[in-house]
């Protein structure tokens, strides 16, 4: 038998390495919606008529879904619905860690939920001014949930969610 002139050596074991570009953020003013935020330049925003939006991340095969609701004496119901949506994942989740978010300077208050395990959504949040505006958000990937496989992408998007929460501003009406 003959082969190439170079000696063939076995390749070392490899590990999956998912490297993502460092996020760059730009201020995003959504059409005629009553809020603005800083968004990752990798995300494409698609707005709906009710000021809800989808931030699509083509390189991650996932998206951040934002739902906007007006507060009209229904803040208690909106909070209950947001918490219920998160805790519906408890069946598949290993743990759900809550982190309060308070920014009195810009009148933004909320909660960030870090969901670990094979749940459909690895992060969820809500923000509100308690009197007029309420936004919920959830990460979803276009794959069957396997926590170990999507962990790097989920961590990347968690950073974006936190940045969105910290940069969110309500427009003056």
In terms of topology, how is this protein built?
Layout: E1 25-29, E2 35-40, E3 44-47, E4 53-57, E5 62-70, H1 75-87, E6 93-103, E7 108-117, E8 123-128, E9 133-141, H2 147-167, E10 169-170
Antiparallel strand pairs: 1-2, 2-10, 3-4, 4-5, 5-9, 6-7, 7-8, 8-9
What keyword list fits this structure?
173 residues, alpha+beta, 7-stranded antiparallel sheet, 3-stranded antiparallel sheet, 10 strands, 20% helix
Commentary on this structure:
This protein has 2 helices and 10 strands; from the N terminus they run E-E-E-E-E-H-E-E-E-E-H-E. The chain has 173 residues and is of the alpha+beta class. The strands form 2 sheets. A 7-stranded antiparallel beta sheet has the order 3-4-5-9-8-7-6, sandwiched between helices. A 3-stranded antiparallel beta sheet has the order 1-2-10. Strand 1 and strand 2 (35-40) form a beta hairpin. 29% of the residues are buried.
Q: Give the percentage of residues in beta strands.
A: 35-45%
Please report the total strand number as a whole number: 10
Radius of gyration: 20 Å
Average pLDDT over all residues: 85
Elements, N to C (H/E): EEEEEHEEEEHE
Largest sheet: 7 strands, antiparallel
Overall morphology: elongated
Poorly predicted residue ranges: none
In terms of quaternary structure, what is this?
single chain
Structural class: alpha+beta
Helix count equals 2
Q: Order of strands side by side in the largest beta sheet?
A: 3-4-5-9-8-7-6
- What distance separates the N and C termini? 81 Å
Q: Helical content, roughly?
A: 10-25%
């Amino acid at each position: 038998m003959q082969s190439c002139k170079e000696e063939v050596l076995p390749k070392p074991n490899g590990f999956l390495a998912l490297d993502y570009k460092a996020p760059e953020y730009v201020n995003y003013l959504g059409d005629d919606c009553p809020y603005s935020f800083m968004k990752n330049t990798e995300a494409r925003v698609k707005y709906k008529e009710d000021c809800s939006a989808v931030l699509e991340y083509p390189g991650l095969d996932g998206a951040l879904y934002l739902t906007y609701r007006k507060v009209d004496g229904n803040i208690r119901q909106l909070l209950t619905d947001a918490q219920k949506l998160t805790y519906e994942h408890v069946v598949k989740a290993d743990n759900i860690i809550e982190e309060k978010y308070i920014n009195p300077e810009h009148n933004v208050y909320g909660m960030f939920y870090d969901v670990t395990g094979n749940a459909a959504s690895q992060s969820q949040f809500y923000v509100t001014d308690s009197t007029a505006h309420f936004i919920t958000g959830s990460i979803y990937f276009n794959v069957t949930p396997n926590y170990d496989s999507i962990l790097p992408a989920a961590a990347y998007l968690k950073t974006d969610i936190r940045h969105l929460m910290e940069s969110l501003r309500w427009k003056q009406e």
